[in-house]
Queue: 2 jobs
Job 1
Amino acid sequence: MSGYLFSRLLQTLVTLFVMSVLVFGGLHMVGNPVDVLLSPTATPAERLEVIRSFGLDQPVWVQYGIFLRNALSGDLGNSFVYNQPALHLILQRMPATLELAAAALVMALALGLPLGIYAGLRPNGGLAKAIMAFSILGFSLPTFWIGLVMIMVFAVQLGWLPSSGRGDTVDVFGVPLSLFTLDGLAHIALPAFNLALFKISLVIRITRAGVLETLQLDFVRFARAKGLPEARIVLVHVLKNTLIPLITVIGLELGSLIAFAVVTETIFAWPGMGKLIIDSIAVLDRPVILAYLMITVVMFSVINLAVDILYSIVDPRVRLEGN
Amino acid sequence: MADPVLSVQDLTTSFRVDGQWRSVVRNASFDIGPKETVAVVGESGSGKSVTAMSIMRLLPPGNARCTGRIAFEGEDLLAGPLDRMQAIRGNRIGMIFQEPMTSLNPVLKIGSQITEVLRQHRGLDGAEAEAEAVRLLDRVRIPSAKQRLGEYPMNFSGGMRQRVVIAIALACSPKLLIADEPTTALDVTIQAQILELIKTLQEEEGMSVLFITHDMGVVAEISDRTVVMYRGEVVEKATTEAIFREARHPYSRALLSAVPQLGAMAGQDRPLRFPRVDMATGEIAPPPPTADTVRADAPPVLKVENLVTRFPVRKGLLRRVVGRIHAVEDISFELRQGETLSLVGESGCGKSTTGRSLIRLEEPSGGTVGMDGHDVRGAGHSELTKIRRDVQMIFQDPFESLNPRIRIGEAIAEPMIVHGLVSHREAPARVADLLERVGLSGEMMQRFPHEFSGGQRQRICIARALALEPKLIVADESVSALDVSVKAQVINLMLDLQENYGLGYLFISHDMAVVERISHRVAVMYLGEIVEIGPRAAVFETPRHPYTRKLIAAVPVADPSRRRRRVVAGDEIRSPYRPADYVAPKRLYREVGEGHFVQIHESEAAA
Amino acid sequence: MTEASEPASWARRGAEAAPPSASPFRQTLGALLRDPLALIGIVIVALLVIGAVAAPQIAPQDPYDLAQLDIMDGRLAPGSQSMTGMVYLLGTDDQGRDLFSAILFGLRTSLLVGIASAAIALAIGASVGLFSAYAGGRTDAFLMRIVDIQLSFPAILIALIFLAILGQGVDKIILALVVTQWAYYARTVRGSALVERKRAYVDAARSMALPDRRILFRHILPNCLPPLIVVATMRVAYAIMLEATLSFLGIGLPVTEPSLGLLVSNGYEYLLSGDYWISFYPGLALLILIVSINLIGDSLRDILNPRREG
């Protein structure tokens, strides 16, 4: 187990390093943030001054060295645009994104699991076929477009739910969250469902496939021959085996939810870190882009680790081992 | 006879395939009396397993239907609603299946898989259920039962899992046990243990047993009465003695004549073909005598000396070698042209790895292999190509060993064309010729492998092997996956080909009875080593090594008059895994007869 | 010798003697055409492809020729007529662009980007996967570690970063999509190649001393194709969706390139005022395209599922 943790930590560090080099070098090669930041009327002297103040006159490896040294002490640089620590900017917006992703994940599981199990148990039934048709549709719906359609229908036409912003928040341990106020819930409903739609389909499909496959296995037949009630066979014997592939997928998909929040946040004007990164890319705000990347690498590594540990708990056949 | 426990009358079971109802069991009728063991025997497609599933009503309700009457202790199982079966299954009728490796849920603890039955049918709970579970595991002779309750199935060997399955099936003292090929997936010594266990428990419980099997040896060993099924119909039912003594139906006779009986070869000095049975009349034609094919005058075609093949087991971050599987450990033997040498042993004994090491499908770790004068281990690319032409392999699973996407004509032609033996233009004629030699037709060459039955596929594999005109064929469990009657035909074909082409066979098998039938010489393998090697008659009639004796004793004999109660040791098959610093001891052999060598036990060697 | 316990396969055995010697490719195609949903998908995809290829010939207007646009026709509802008498079937956008024409041209870009990126990613990924499985050992472990790490990052994130570095353009978005997708193909091919390599027919080929290259390309690769085809179909759909998403976010294609994502994005600001069609119809076209491809993929997955092979 400790060997396993060590190898995972090592892998995360290597990934962080490689990513930072690639992105730092890449960003350096294209475009000059100064062009974006300065007004076209700036004099050459003002230009030089700005370049020096951001340290952009140094050779790239020196710049990277400075970045690395600062990064190790927890300083990922100041945003060119906001002139605030990039790390701070992102951490400030992170709770909103995580809240959105978590709400979407809960929705995906709460809807996807029962529908998937049903479709797996009665693969030839009419309802199951309808569920599968829905899942193909959900799989194919462009998130950004269905988000717009949802705004059009539920916010503009019907006027049931607000179309943008986060609504009232309550501080929970100092973190502002929308989930605990009615207004907040009304605001998060559309964006969370929008984000969840793709994942609902995914969970349905994986659950259905898992149930179908598990039902064919010998131990299910043996469980029937033991005279167990069908409910126990499905809810204990089948479901526990089906959960195993699902856990890996959920881990990967939590990461993808956080990343895809970029789209949902843009449409629903949700003040999360996805909106920030899109804006930063548009103006080539390097420190923010880099900081966002570093944070997501760490975040995904933690998620993957959690998935592996969960996996080894659910599946006795898995033993965590270095490499 | 007292009232039967189970009475099956006119059972017809149909499946819906592509919208059509097709019957797979037709008008089957038989009874099982109290405390009686009835075997239902047949080959694949005979409907024997479907019959068992029909009794338990385990077939999918939408796609299968059963008609007729199945009376269990007087009540018709087919009549009531399906829910009612829940109170019968696992409670009054227990059932065990073929695959112990997959019968248990891999992610639930053994304990909970036992106690759920006790809770369901006997209303036991908590500590009570647990105590009963321990008692059940004790009864099926699982050591330290209490600790093992908290373990998962993966910590149990195949034999141990089947014991757990039996414990579960008998948890509620059922009146009837249905055992569907319960020992087919097990090694022969483990099979003997499980058969003894079932017999013992049956006497203790006073229950009846319905035993589904394809193995006539097991039938002779265990059943009071036998029901023979063929293509969905019961063709014959009688006491087991009567069936074996004077079977009436041609199919029963064909089936029995295709079953090799261990010990029946006494007095024969050459391999023997299986007799042919006329399926219309049931008349048995005695097999033609086999010619003497062994070229004792010429130097051996294959010479193996001190062959070692080990597989490293790596662990940890640095992938250090922490141990090795000693799959093949210091074995030596020779094989002459026209000779059949069998390597026999249980799973994990290294017999298959030996065969694969000969042509470096697995890279040997030490020793020498001389093939017709070529040094296999030192051979470069082109020399190895030449060697592999001379040694052809036939594998166990004919479903697997043909590429599913290549037409069989191409599959047979490919090696010949690659090796430049024929041109593209000549190939079809040569392929047709080869197909006819193995009893198929040249017109079949446009077909894909999935269009053939298992026996036909194995013939195709043989044709492909013959295409390169080899001197030696390594047959790795080549007939093990085939039905009894098909197996007999393929073996007859192999003996024909040996006579015609002077082929040498290295016949790798776990099936002692088949080995006795077709070998000139036999080598018994255990944990990667040869423990005994010699002429077939010597090894089978005067086995010297304790393992050889144990192996022969464990084989069920297809003759109910030779039935015996055996004292079976409960030990498991050991693993050839050794730590990295293990030094294999040097083994010595003693010649106990002409060409008959036995490994000397360490204590003898030291003396 | 084991009796198959599965009733369906059990009963199918009787049909084995029938002689349908069609090649696996034809069998798959036949099964695909017999599935009504897949057939609908094929027909729609075919129509959309024809429409996209022939867009310059059949579109009423070249939506990117500014000379043909009239700002006076801006934001007309579907079915409206222009000053010159032309009917705007699906309405116009804020610049007076005929949406029907814009969608046809947008489909061109979407299909080009989707298919090109999938084809290149497939070629790279399949080669890496096959090589990895063939090489084994440390090379395999190393390559698969890279694949695993990359797959632990969502595609959209990688695409975002790449486009942040590369800037906008058709070639750049294709490159970004290739980078995000090759790993899926590599893992699929490597996975099936490893399974196939252990199967007895490969042992048989080796024992007949067939050359390694022949075993790899003639025996192993064709057997890896079914899962690869399924993955590729689904991935094309996903690539098209990803391109549209990135363009919608304003970091995919430049405003001068016709793209469905951009059209949706353009209509975004008029949505609240009720001019829904500017965003709605381009998105609907995108949805129909993706659903159709996924219908084909879903059917292929069922047909090519190895469990169904006899």
Job 2
Amino acid sequence: MRTPLFIICEVVVATVLYLLFRHYGNDYFFFAGYTVLQFVVMATAWNILGGYCGYVNFGSAGFFAIGAYSSVFFYTVGQNVQDMDPGFLTSVLHVIFPIPVPILIVFGGAFAGLVGLGTGYLTLRLRGVFFAIATLALAVVIETLIVNWEYVGGSRGAYIIPPNTVPVFGPYIQYLFVLMLVMVIVGLTAARLIERSRLGYGFATIRDDELAAEASGVPTLKLKLIATVLSGALMGMAGSTFPFYLGFTEPGSVFDLSYAVNSIAMPMIGGTTSWVGPLIGAILLGTMQQVATVTISSVANLLIVGLMLIGFVIVAPNGIVGLWQDWIAKRSKS
Amino acid sequence: MEFSFSLLINAIAAGLLLGGFYAAVTAGIAISFGMLDIVNIAHPAFIIVGSYVAYIINAKFGVDPILASIVMLPAFYALGAAVYQVYYLSFEKRGQESLRGLAFFFGLLFVTEVLLLIVFGVDYRSVNAAYIGPSINIGPIELPLRLLVPCAAALAMFAVLQIFLSRSFIGRAVMAVSQDPLALRLMAVDPTRIKRIAFGISIATASMAGAFLIIIQPVIPSVGRDYIGRIFAICVLGGLGSLPGALIAALLLGVLESLTSTFYGPSWAPAVAFGILLITLAVRPSGLLGR
Amino acid sequence: MSAPLLHVDQVGKRFGGFVALDSVNLDVAEGERVGLIGPNGSGKSTLVNCICGTLRNETGDVIFAGQNINTLNTHERTHRGLARSFQLPRPFMSLSVAENIRVPLLYTVNARGGHHLHGSELDDRCVELLKLVALDKKANKLPRDLTQVEMRKLELARAVAAEPKLLIADESMAGLSHSEVEDIVALLIRLNQRGITIIMIEHIMSAVMTFSQRLVVLVSGKKIADGKPDEVIKDQEVVGAYLGQ
């Protein structure tokens, strides 16, 4: 399928989904759906670096948080601008602030991408595990910075009061839902484009054998940095609407370990070799968690995610997509 | 904050004591990551399990936590050997340790934390022992026994490990297992068996490190996460696979963290380890004592 | 005489206290077929790694096509026309045989100025290269389905796909049968006749003697002989080094 056609398909599916939700669902559906879509973006983002290049990022929560706090920061600046005395400068600022959410998404992505670039530049020359370890510690340090940054609320957290309704979309949550749908489309399209391009071949050679990749002319460091930036930026984008979603942002909720675990578990369980895997994994695990949080407890369902992750990496290394492919192969043989 | 000499010297002393404890925390990773090339990021989770085991024994039978952790060494060793067996069969043998092996340990870390959360809840747990509370004073320096005792025990454990690794046959095989597989074959030992033993030992150290931890501070299930950055920072700074290097790095980090929390506030301390880790990786990936 | 294609000047490399390469000099002219031999641990692989940029030489210079390439990364050296095959084949395991060949086409041939390969041209070139090593029937297989010889042929084809000026074939024949060795030697000579300069590192003496126009001997990180093959193997020092081993 050609890319324009693929995008058209995505838009059609997204539109149908939105209309179904609008017609049959209530706000709760949109709240739950938003979370699942957010995980689709996170899983897809993780997989660009983890699945395609074989570099494990444990710091998903950190990148997510950068996006979230970039929005909190610009929102707070906007609030302060309103309190300023009138003057030439403030009248200019009044035009700029409050910054619309779609632009905040771009900002969140840019900052997270930059942090990805920095971390990658320092650690990606070394063996892959050092990058993994650095990302593991990265989330801790970003949390430390934010806890100590009073302007964005520090350890107490920050309130963002979104308007109740938005023109065209109606309730604010529906607006956020649509924005997240757009991010899903962007993420999936990017992932699929990479797979089929020269970049995708390059990523695969990095995953398979970096020495041989270099010898074949693949600029491995550059490609790894591209993957890190893309992946980090997508995570930052997913995080940038979070403050508007909950209305209250605190380090504890943004740095929740469940982001890191889910964004690894979802691609691993779905399958890491193509864009379909993270999508399947995220929809499956995301929906399951939404249902289980209501019926059982949220702790118990995190336990299930963890156990599924361990089970899948041991028993089905290529995830659900891999199981499916094996099954097809077996059927065509018999 | 007003600068004072006694504040400085006390911060350094506390840092050194903390560093001794960090050495015990890192010993296991220095073996598994440094010598066996197994990136066991779940190590802190095993340490927290060690803390809770010490807590249970202490609360039920009133046994000293350090003694309890020594009694539990064989159990932790067996646990480690079992985990290695699963890891070996599922990942190392298939050559998938880099991506899936890491995800496996990450899953273990997470599942252990959640299980502890389900069983023990989010309340802080602590132990009772005679040395928790009092301090001894040397001039202006105050040494809390709560830090001194774990530090001394940690150093003793560290010394025993170092002697074992450098003197015994199995110890030397462990040191050779990742660097020199040929020599290992000449010694006619099965590398998988050596790795299983070594990994067992590395998890066994978590039993004691866990007891030290719960003596130093009350423990909740998520505390382990704070130690991931520290452990790897120390391990990398010390030079992979070098116990003496890890000890020096641990003392250094302890002092730096202690100074940071004394002069800038405790909320900044977690960033120190990460800073050290990144700088080491960027500037001197072979560690302090590396070539 | 024109400047050599490869000029290795006083290259040295140590690992800790161990001297792996001790001021090695080596000139290779364009179009030449050079054999590089030496006992295990004599520094052959280290020399190859220093030439290709996998390792950095601590002293001396590597000059390729008139330019000092000391500070270049491996992929930059490959772009300039320096390709190698690995001693133990290192195919990209998740890519098919044809896709393995495609990587250097995409990342080296297309990264150079000049004609870019597109769509069907790429496929044609892959088939052509695979035919050269008689692997065209296995184009869609994964590397794990190949035999030892096929794996080594794939390794060579991938290096050749980068259209190198200089190809370094690192022990491409270890563990192969007599006829398979002849196969690969014939292939290397064919490649040389197409204009590729080749350095062959090998233990199998019959192959070395058939292939080489010049023979270089490395012992304990030092070059001890360099000249016509039949003269070199009679050299007292060379005989001593091999017998003494």
